[in-house]
Amino acid sequence: MTTKPRKKSPDLKPAPRKVPTRTRLTPVASPSGKPNQADIAYARLRELILSGAIAPGSFVLELEAAARLGMSRTPVREAMVRLRAEGIVEIRARHGMRVLPVSADDMREIYEVLTSLEATAAGLVARRGIAKEALVSLNMAVANMDAALDRDDLEAWAQADESFHRTLINSCGNRRIIQTVDQFWSQAHRARLLTLRLRPKPTQSNREHAALVRAIAKGDADAAMRLHQEHRERAGRLLTDLLSKLP
To answer: Given 99, 128, 156, which residue is the final one in a domain?
Structure first.
């Protein structure tokens, strides 16, 4: 019986290419207020996966990851478990992880969840009123998206888009919506980066973001919900269509 050779583990150092700023993540602070080794391992591995430096389908041994990150296996193991909880890796035999492929079917289901919850969040923000600082942040994100497209900087556009949606969700006042959306954010973010240069220039998204901010500023909850739902449904259809055509 012929043993199929195991796919060589990738170099865990980021490839020398431009990486969207959004993927340069700050380690999550531990209860003591300082990032521990598991927090650092998690942030670094997550950054490499979201940026594509560790490609979908790659297998990374725990021991190899620990050596390259310059730490023991225990924090790396904890980091891999956290990444599995986000749905972007699976834990495999011989104490390693495999980066899961980005599936069109998975994204279809994830966008159905995000569309429903984010539309509800937009309605809550409009109905309850938005803090002045949050409204300023939304308008700034819209301006940054416009400026990014003017100079054809899609990475900067993706960063501003991420900031817009994060600000909106974090302003809704419902912790369970925030926590549930956060469970799927990494998977959706990775799919958007993968297809970023395959989609049409997102000028329509910019117009939809601006219209949503106006509805929220007016306190029009029904319009905010409708606009956000239409925005996410359109984006979801485009994303899954692109993913279904990838080899």
So the answer is: 99
Number of other residues whose CB lies within 10 A of the CB of residue 175: 8
Q: Which domain holds residue 138?
A: 104-245
Domains in the chain: how many in total?
2
The pLDDT tens digits of the residues spanning 187-244 come to: 898 898 889 889 999 999 999 999 999 999 999 999 999 999 999 999 999 999 999 9
Partnered with residue 30 across adjacent β-strands are none
140-176 per-position pLDDT tens digit: 999 999 999 999 999 999 999 999 999 999 999 999 9
